[in-house]
């Protein structure tokens, strides 16, 4: 079994005062910088894999093809497909972090990327609604192991003075991946029309992104080769597969039972969230003693709950932004995708900027919480303005929507590495993987519900305004939760057990 020391950077000789080694020419070499870029590549491909479903579903609805061609409520069904992916992604967040603590975080990162690449390729081969859903759920189950292990590796290998910056730089890959999937899916589909029947052109998007993910996995495995052991990788894969098999069975059982009972797509998504709550309670019952420091810490749990709003907003706009923009402005699918790209692209600036500013705040003794609250508050105000503009403008401008989406997303993305760094500071080092996993497990309930709820509101109201107003209200609720978090760097303690 791989020990936790596998994720500790190898000793450097001689060591520079700032933790960087020095080569023969006297230059300071910071190996964590190249590690950041490699993990960012992993985020890019995995985020593109999960984000492509939204634009593909929108294209299917617009062109009346595939399994959405004859759906009575196409947006609700499309949103449920997105929600079920995140049900899978959500249910391996905590197991993925726990297995990383056990087998090595680098091992789980490689397993997650290979799994995601293979599953994404398979998505392009399948036909039929249920089979498509199963494969997307399986994709999510594999990708769910990346987040908590990536966050832990960065925390352990990056000097504390640059920790938040590292967390922000790496997760910039999320914005890059969402942007690629949002902006370039029309091009992928057009390329598919050259090789496939028009009704199957959407498959090309999955072929391209799945191949890219496997190439990225090979690059990451090459970097981590000294920390990988074939036997340990095999055991970790089988252990994750065991968790995933149970999760897949539960997710699909809820879907099939709900469908046969005549439940709406929204209620099926709600039941998937109930399933996630059951997983949390199971973790408390089985491993409450071992994991008590990250499960019963009041401040950590408030951060976990606040991330429901973060993941709701992230995947509501990532899944439906093309449809929101194109529908409001009565523009083409391609123009809608380009404008919606402003929302995703803002993370390319926001993530690293937020991480850098967070580290500056810590060095000056301000703590991370004030900046976290400020950025969340600005994002809430701008989202309210966006909802108001959709409600009052007769024909919203693509440019105005693009500017509002970009600005709100800039602050939204900037606050996330600040929250990640705060989680790392509050959690015991030996349980950071479990803490990040629990944070995303609880937060992903927002990702499960937001595509489905947004789709239902679109079908019932004929527009996206109500769904955007709801998104703004949930962001405000997340802000309120964060006000009660104790910042350990402001002299208020590290968050006592509840």
Notes on the structure:
It is a single chain. By secondary structure, the chain is mainly alpha-helical. The protein has 17 helices and two strands. The model is unreliable at 1-27 and 491-498 (pLDDT under 50).
Low-confidence runs of at least 5 consecutive residues: 1-27, 491-498
Give the topology string: H per helix, E per strand: EEHHHHHHHHHHHHHHHHH
SS elements, strand count:
2
The residue fraction in helices comes out at over 70%
* Number of contiguous helices: 17
Over all CA atoms, what is the radius of gyration? 22 Å
**What is the global morphology?**
globular
Summed over residues and divided by their number, the pLDDT gives a mean of 83
Structural classification: mainly alpha
Through-space gap between termini: 34 Å
- The spatial strand order of the largest sheet comes to 1-2
Question: Sheet bearing the most strands, described?
Answer: 2 strands, antiparallel
Strand content: under 5%
Lay out the secondary structure:
Elements lengths: L20 E2 L5 E2 L1 H21 L1 H11 L10 H18 L1 H11 L1 H19 L5 H15 L2 H12 L5 H33 L7 H21 L6 H31 L4 H31 L2 H32 L3 H31 L5 H24 L5 H29 L5 H30 L3 H18 L16
Antiparallel strand pairs: 1-2
Helix pairs in contact: 1-7, 1-8, 1-9, 2-3, 2-8, 2-12, 3-6, 3-10, 3-11, 3-16, 4-5, 4-7, 4-10, 4-16, 5-6, 5-7, 5-9, 6-10, 7-16, 8-9, 8-13, 8-15, 10-11, 11-16, 12-13, 12-15, 12-16, 12-17, 13-15, 14-15, 14-17, 16-17
What are its keywords?
498 residues, 17 helices, two-stranded antiparallel ribbon
């Amino acid at each position: 079994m791989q020990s936790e020391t596998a994720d500790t950077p190898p000793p450097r000789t001689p060591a520079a005062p700032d933790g960087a080694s020095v080569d023969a020419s006297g230059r300071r070499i910071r190996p964590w910088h190249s590690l950041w870029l490699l993990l960012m590549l992993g985020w890019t491909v995995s985020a593109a894999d999960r984000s492509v479903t939204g634009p593909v579903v929108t294209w299917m609805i617009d062109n009346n093809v595939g399994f959405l061609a004859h759906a009575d409520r196409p947006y609700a069904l499309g949103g449920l497909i997105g929600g079920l992916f995140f049900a899978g992604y959500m249910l391996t967040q905590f197991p993925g972090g726990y297995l990383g603590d056990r087998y090595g975080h680098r091992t789980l990162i490689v397993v997650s990327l290979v799994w995601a690449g293979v599953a994404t390729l398979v998505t392009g081969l399948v036909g039929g609604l249920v089979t498509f859903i199963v494969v997307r759920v399986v994709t999510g189950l594999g990708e769910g192991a990346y987040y908590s292990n990536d966050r832990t590796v960065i925390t352990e290998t990056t000097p504390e003075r640059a920790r938040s910056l590292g967390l922000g730089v790496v997760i910039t890959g999320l914005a890059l991946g969402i942007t690629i999937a949002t902006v370039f899916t029309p091009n992928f589909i057009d390329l598919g029309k050259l090789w496939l029947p028009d009704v199957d052109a959407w498959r090309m998007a999955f072929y391209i992104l799945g191949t890219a993910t496997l190439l990225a996995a090979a690059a990451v495995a090459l970097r981590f080769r000294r920390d990988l052991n074939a036997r340990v990788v095999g055991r970790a894969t089988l252990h994750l597969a065991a968790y995933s098999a149970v999760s897949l069975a539960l997710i699909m059982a809820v879907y099939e039972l709900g469908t046969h009972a005549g439940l709406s797509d929204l209620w099926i998504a709600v039941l998937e969230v109930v399933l996630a709550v059951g997983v949390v309670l199971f973790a408390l019952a089985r491993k409450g003693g071992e994991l008590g420091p990250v499960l019963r810490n009041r401040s950590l749990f408030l951060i976990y709950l606040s991330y429901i709003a973060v993941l709701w907003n992230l995947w509501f706009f990532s899944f439906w932004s093309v449809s929101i923009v194109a529908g409001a402005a009565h523009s083409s699918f391609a123009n809608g995708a380009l404008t919606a790209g402003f929302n995703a692209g803002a993370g390319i600036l926001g993530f690293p900027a937020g991480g850098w500013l967070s580290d500056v705040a810590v060095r000056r003794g301000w703590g991370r919480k004030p900046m976290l609250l400020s950025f969340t508050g600005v994002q809430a105000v701008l989202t309210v303005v966006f909802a108001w503009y959709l409600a009052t403008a007769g024909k919203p401008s693509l440019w105005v929507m693009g500017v509002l989406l970009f600005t709100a997303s800039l602050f939204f993305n900037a606050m996330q590495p600040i929250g990640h760094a705060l989680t790392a500071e509050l959690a015991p080092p030996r349980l950071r993987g479990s803490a990040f996993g629990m944070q995303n497990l609880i937060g992903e309930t927002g990702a499960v519900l937001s595509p489905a709820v947004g789709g239902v509101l679109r079908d019932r109201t004929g527009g996206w305004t109500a769904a955007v107003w709801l998104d703004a209200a949930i962001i405000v609720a997340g802000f309120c939760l964060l006000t009660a978090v104790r910042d350990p760097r402001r002299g208020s303690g590290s968050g006592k057990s509840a």
